[in-house]
Write a structure and sequence with these properties.
The longest helix has about 35 residues. The two termini are about 40 Å apart. The protein is an all-alpha fold and about 425 residues long.
């Protein structure tokens, strides 16, 4: 009889995946380096044919599957409530940095600066690491911040890089090549909106597939490129957060008007693991970029690692400097970072974006046990459209989300 598997995956012995998972971007970077070692020292192994070659030296089908699965997560249900914040992040993290890099390309040419090509800059700057964003905003952000993770799904992949290069005339990206690259994403969006169950089934696909296609991608990189691109990759990685995180910070501060919490925008200053494949995809569409692929791939891989460390550190520093390195709900702020009224703050509402104004019940009764407060709020929510809050002089008690009440009861208990 076989033992039942532990309910918590963290209880399983994991000397391989566990090691990769501890390193930011490790599930992409480590297989990439291993692939480069095998591709440089034992290329004959990759030419054995059949399933061996298909698994270890043919990354494109697996990359396409990840793009399809990513598209399935983009639905009106996920993007609608956070469209404004998502748009601000895409503007600050993708559009503004991308346009600035394109302007630099017109000035210095495709070779770029300091051994960092325009291709490497675009592949590094125009996307973001959604995992880092979720981890940080889950602790220090509002529900809207966490929902804006959709921005990482939108700017993930080679699409914006292809768009910038093609539209600016820096390269010749044929329309059919762009269409071929974006069709899996579009099909994923369509299927994801039709079949929500399939969307949930496909959700873990990137986690499963990325180490395999990263290894296959690495087999096409000469190991000497790692030595050449490593140092310049560190420089590139150190630029990601101050540059792209800084522009997102400005969007948070002046467009979203987040005030002292605008520093959370720096968390967007990362590079997605999937962007490591972007140089190869661009070169497949325009052979003129082939000369940059090996070094650019290593530079982007290094930037993934560096930016995953610097972005949370810089964001935390800004928030701490402004005295806001804390959970907004515990600070009595709603989903728009506006102060909740006293009653709502006592209830501990986090992320509802609604208020309870001060009234007779907001004295000692406002500190009654969590279960009783939840029952009172449920009774209030049953008032319907014609609630008493619209009448002059009445106590204003807006409806609360059931999820918020559940979390409130848990904290009270």
């Amino acid at each position: 009889m076989h033992d039942a598997p532990p309910a918590d995956l963290k209880q399983l012995r994991s000397p391989l995946y566990g090691l990769m998972d501890k390193i930011p971007g490790g599930t992409m970077v480590i297989p990439l380096i291993l692939g480069a070692i095998v591709g440089t020292t034992a290329p004959a192994f990759l030419e054995l044919g059949s399933f061996t070659t298909a698994l270890f030296a043919t990354p494109m089908p697996m990359m396409a599957l990840v793009i399809f699965a990513t598209g399935m997560q983009i639905t009106p249900r996920s993007i609608g409530p956070v469209a404004g914040t998502t748009g601000a992040i895409i503007l600050g993290k993708t559009l503004v940095p991308g346009l600035l890099v394109v302007g630099l390309g017109f000035t210095v040419g495709l070779d770029g600066l300091l051994g960092i090509s325009i291709l490497a800059m675009l592949a590094t700057f125009d996307n973001s690491n959604g995992g880092i964003w979720l981890a940080f905003t889950g602790k220090y952000g509002t529900k809207t911040d966490r929902g804006a993770y959709v921005a990482s799904a939108v700017n993930d992949g080679p699409f914006f890089t292809m768009l910038f290069i093609g539209a600016a005339g820096l390269g010749s990206i044929p329309l059919d090549a762009f269409a071929a690259a974006i069709i899996p994403l579009i099909l994923g969006i369509i299927v994801g909106n039709i079949d929500h169950r399939w969307t949930e089934i496909m959700r873990p696909v990137p986690t499963i597939v990325i180490p395999f296609f990263a290894f296959g991608l690495g087999t096409g990189i000469d190991i000497s490129a790692i030595l050449t691109g490593g140092m310049t990759g560190i420089v590139l990685g150190l630029l990601v957060t101050p540059f792209t995180g800084g522009t997102t910070y400005l969007a948070y501060r002046f467009l979203l008007r987040r005030g002292k919490r605008a520093g959370i925008g720096f968390v967007a200053g990362t590079t997605a693991g999937n962007s490591i494949v972007t140089p190869a995809i661009i070169a497949s569409a325009d052979p003129r970029f082939e000369q940059y692929v090996d070094v650019a791939t290593v530079q982007v891989a290094t930037a993934v690692l560096i930016s995953a460390i610097t972005a949370p550190l810089i964001a935390a520093w800004f928030l701490k400097r402004n005295g806001t390195l804390s959970d907004p709900g515990e600070d009595g702020l709603d989903d728009r970072d506006e102060p909740l009224a006293v009653g709502a703050r006592d209830v501990g509402v986090h992320g509802t974006g609604r208020r309870r104004a001060e009234g007779p019940a907001d004295g000692p009764a406002g500190r009654q046990p969590g279960r009783q407060r939840g029952r009172e709020s449920d009774e209030t929510s049953a008032d319907g459209p014609g609630d008493r809050s619209d009448q002059p002089g009445a106590d204003r008690t807006d409806r609360l989300d059931p999820d918020d009440l559940d979390s409130t009861s848990s904290r009270s208990r």
